[in-house]
Amino acid sequence: MREKTLTCVSCPIGCEITVKTEHGKVIKTSGNRCPRGETYARQEAIDPMRVLPTSVRVIGGRCPLVSVKTDRPVPKRLIAEIMQHVRKMSIRAPVEIGQIIASHLNGTDANLVATRTVPRAECADRRGISCDLTEIVHET
Ligand code: SF4
């Protein structure tokens, strides 16, 4: 039997939850104040999930990259594989905030969604929009 202590991130209270597993199955959770915590702990102990923030190359845009994130958590074990896929992607400007860049990433239910707008280079020049790469890096 293995025992692990997790901090629930489902609400700001942050309960410390102890999860006992045996042969890859959860046999007991304790310390959670509500059922959401148990759901979180069971998932986290067996197959942790994460929202993935990253960036995608933009062609003909005022910025060379657009920040993106998955619209729902993806299995942590798939993140390296998903990133290999994302590194090969590019999208032509303009890109609108909320635009779906890719659907069903690596067979998951998650879509990759733009978290900022990137106008075409010539449009941005006319509107005086500048590209701050530092800002992009910090957003991801
Ligand atoms: S177990 Fe319930 S009360 Fe505790 S942090 Fe998680 S969601 Fe909040």
Largest sheet: 5 strands, mixed
Calculate the mean pLDDT score and round it: 90
Content of β-strand: 25-35%
Q: What small ligands are held by the chains?
A: iron/sulfur cluster
Rg from C-alpha positions? 19 Å
Order of helices and strands: EEEHEEEEHEEEHH
Strands of the largest sheet, in order across it?
8-5-6-10-9
* Overall number of domains: 2
CATH class of the largest domain: Alpha Beta
SSE class: alpha+beta
**Which of globular, elongated, flat, extended, rod-shaped describes the shape?**
elongated
- Counting DSSP H or I runs of 4 or more residues, the number of helices is 4
Number of strands: 10
Proper CATH architecture of the largest domain: Roll
Characteristic key phrases:
binds iron/sulfur cluster, alpha+beta, 2 domains, elongated, single chain, 140 residues, N-terminal domain of TfIIb, 4 helices, disordered C terminus
